[in-house]
Amino acid sequence: MARIGVFVCHCGINIAQNVDVEALAEYAGHLDDVVVSKTYKYMCSDVGATLIKDMIKQHKLDSIVVASCSPRMHEHTFRKVISDGGINPYRLEMVNIREHCSWTHDDRQKATEKAKSLIRGAVAKAKLLESLTPLKIPVIPNALIIGGGIAGIQASLDLANDGFKVYLVEQEPSLGGRMAQLDKTFPTLDCSSCILTPKMMEVANHPSIELLTYSEVIGLEGSIGNYNVKIKKKPRYVDIEKCTGCGDCATNCRLKDRILNEFETGMGKRGAAYMPFPQAVPLKYTIDSQHCLFLTRGKCGDEPACKKACLQDAIDFDQKEEVIDIKVGAIVVTVGYDLLDPSSLYEYGYANSPDVITTLELERLISSSGPTKGEIIRPSDKQKPKSVTFILCVGSRDETQCTWCCRIGCMSVLKHVYLLREKLGEELEINICYTDIRSYGKGYEEFYRKIRGLKTNLFRGRPSEVRDMKTYQKMDVFDTTTNKLFEIKTDMIVLAPALVPRINSTELARLLRLTLSGDGFLLEAHPKLRPVDTFVNGIFIAGCCQGPKDIQDTVSQASGAASKAANILSKPSLESEPLIAIVDEDLCSGCRLCISICPYKAIEPVEEEVNGKIVTRAKVNEALCMGCGACVVACPSGAMQQFGFKDKQLKPMIKEMSLQK
Amino acid sequence: MEKKYALFTGCMMSTEQYAYELSVRESLPTLDVKLVDVEGFSCCGEPMKSVNQLMALYLSARNIAIAQKNNLAILAPCAMCHLSLSECKHILENNKEMKDRINGMLAAEDLNYSGSIEVLHIVDLLYDKIDLETIKKHVKKPLSGLKFATHYGCHLIRPSELGRPVNSENPTKMEEILNALGAETVSYYPEKLDCCGGILQINSLESALTKTGQKLKAIQEYGFSGLVDVCPWCHRMYDARQVKAGETVATKLEVPVFYLTQLLGLAFGIKKEKLGLDLNLSPVDKLNLSEVQR
Amino acid sequence: MSIVDLTSMGEPQSELRKEINDRLSKLKDEISDYCYQCAKCTSGCEAHKLLELEPHKIVALLKRGLIDEMVNSDIIWTCMSCFKCRERCPQKIAPIEILFALKNMAVASGKEIPGKYTTFLQSILSIGAIQDIQEISTRDNKTTRRAELSLPNISKPKDLTKFQASLMKIAVEKV
């Protein structure tokens, strides 16, 4: 004989308007084993909690039914309440009469009847609830950061300074990401390298950070507090213990200046032996296995030129890929973004002329360590341009390309206007074709005002196409501010393309079981209240991999994600929900269907001797099981059950709910 | 697959631009294309869109229904007709209500639109159905030493969401066909995608001629051997109205303008007269084609 | 409360606007409401330089419901139906289709149709094509017609009466 208490919430008018809560409570009071039945306006409030606790004490209740909102909202609240009241927190059954009833139906009478049958079912299950104890899972106080740009660097430093061991994995040979490719940052016009490099050095020198550059994450198992990660370390073919970063290998490489340099966005060239940029961290050389003559053809002259030139004997063509396993408690993903290839807007001529470039390519031209040593010259004839035209929103806010705003296009171009004026003087004609100028951040409007004062020709309109006249570029643009059509003949065109997720982020998301949002970026758990959480416990995201944003928002998110990760890592152990799967060994035939279905690899086949015979049975690893229930559904014999959702608990519930009363 | 098509001539080609029809009928049999003359066709409806779009839709639908009745796919050498018929297919296939409505009207003519047949233009017939290798095999007199600019027009290439025979921003099929015929081509010139102004002939001839003149002037300045087009409306502007167009841009225009099928026929060794080359009003003789035809 | 365009003293005609939007969604799949006036259409409009057609303005006036001033204007007849506006619009709007709708409305309201449209229509009704067989000049200043070129007879509707009847019925229907 159970002693059940039913508590029906008005939820203000959210439930009460559409469902007769008083009638519900009255009805529930007459059900078998229900000892007390109460209502209150806001059951989740302090007053509601006190009510429940008092009733537990007064009526010696042993199971509680709360009819209110979705368990996603307040199941944890009520578990805590009844636990405070002296009952096992898992002797609670929630009935959703808000999202599943009041909010979806118009007919008050019918909605109330429906709510009655829902409560009937809940009471039937409540009789059979079992007391459960949460599992304690030990937490490994290490963190993994995937992506070594400014977001990853910030998160690593925050966590390392908190005292945790941090593994920082970066797929390129050096840290730095996109910020290393920039010359100056808006709106303060700080030199990007000057503010980035000290942080990169801090990471390199930090005793708690293990830097794994030129490496990739290739496998993940486990769950929050206990992740096993496989990392592939790609071979540099250079012994980094011996390499001094002198550069003799690169100077002598037979392919010197023959390969498009990705760091320079293809505006410059490198050899097969290369350093991505002069301030690289770690300051070690790498040999590109896709192009190196020795690695692709087996022969490089009589002897590889780099090997011959290296005085430290650091070149090692016998290096192999290495796979390591690490254990961490929390992961932060900070893999950054790519730019949309403007060739998909063919009409803007990016594919036709070398003088049509992107903002990032211009950034490399502006940079004093870039392919032109900071000279602004036209890629076609190496001459200084007399006129530069910017086109914003190339592929952004576009239903046929990327529907979202890139957030940084307007400010980047305004910054470029300032820098070009500085480099090329007053005579340079600068045109901007824009649709809206989005200068929303702190100091941004002031910066926009400054640029408006710098003799810039602003056209509010978008050109339809760019015509390649070989020696110059031509376009017509309609300016809605003056209602006139302007023909612009210009020497160089700079396009501000859309920001898109990195091409390999889909694969990474699959590995980590992360969801993608409609635009392909990684999905946050809640856009307003949980912007750095994901739906996978223990994995956080920060920076542009979650959506386009500028550096200050990226750094804020990175610190936020680090703080959330520290939340987990600072505990010696975590409590995990005991609503997990369990095998009835007597019924298990060892068919292994559950093992193949489990997305978390939480079930193993275990052999044991029974009556002289060896039998295989499934065994659930409690630490890994997430309670998704897939194995329960798959099991043909009913051997697999789930705590809190056992067949013997659900069947009476269904029976009661389907009665016509 | 037998290449047998109902030839949909449309109005412009059959009543005025005879050279196109002649060259189509003469050159395609070399490639084993059989053209069938079907009774009952009418205007495709495209010029009527501005007057009554429903009527335009009806006209296209009835023509497709007739071809369907004869179990034939359609070859529409006029780009305007090709767009009208393709658009009609697109609307009727995606909007059941409209399809039922049109069928209700078609019943009065004992016709029914019931599922679609293929509608081809010369360019995708040559490039996709036949192929460049096959075309090359039949070339007896390559058009060597000639460098052509192409004019695709607007209706052949847009709107791309319907699916057009060629790419809307960087069309290359005509160039590749001309290359297979032995001629040189230029893949890009700034005015390549400009409109001929054809439709404006209906209500604003002066402006139409200015559009034509502007493009021809640029082409003349680039020094190409000639211009190649695939639509009678465009050809009418560039070829028949070339002199008048020149007046609007104060230039004496002397640009040879050909239909693609005329060049196709010439390369296959067919005589000039059979391809209607005497009907081209632009100075096609400049190219001394009989000399080229070694 | 109320909105009045002070230059024309016109008020928004929401019924007409709804009618046009319904028709656009029946024939195509687009909503003009999404236009954010980037003017890419006008920048590339083939008819803009010569005839001052501004497709983005047509869309804006439609959004505002000021239909009559467009239906009664001459500017809507300047469109060359090159489809560039539809092809390049980042919000998948087609000013060309809106213009077709406005032109159809002008015809239906009895306005005088410019140019040869009426002649074409009459010709279609009587022979099924926009014009009859033409005598044309050749390059060496002779003339010729279709029959002389050994081309087969032109395809015509088999039963002209039924054909005409169908077309006349459509002339009075709305899309």
Structural summary, described in words:
The complex is a heterotrimer of chains A (661), B (294) and C (175). With 661 residues, chain A is α/β, with parallel strands linked by helices. Helix content of chain A is 28%, strand content 25%. In chain A, the strands form twelve sheets. Chain A has a five-stranded parallel sheet, with helices on one face. In chain A, strands 20-27-21-22-23 form a five-stranded parallel sheet. With 294 residues, chain B is α/β, with parallel strands linked by helices. Chain B folds into two domains: 3-120, Glutathione S-transferase Yfyf (Class Pi), Chain A, domain 2, CATH 1.20.1050.140; 140-293, Rossmann fold (3-Layer(aba) Sandwich), CATH 3.40.50. Chain B has helices at residues 10-15, 18-27, 53-69, 79-94, 96-106, 122-129, 132-137, 173-180, 205-222, 232-240, 242-248, 260-267, 289-292; strands spanning 3-7, 33-36, 73-75, 119-120, 147-151, 184-185, 226-229, 257-259. In chain B, helix 3 packs across helix 4. The mean pLDDT of chain B is 92. By secondary structure, chain C is mostly helical. Chain C folds into two domains: 12-108, Fumarate Reductase Iron-sulfur Protein, Chain B, domain 2 (Orthogonal Bundle); 117-172, no CATH class.
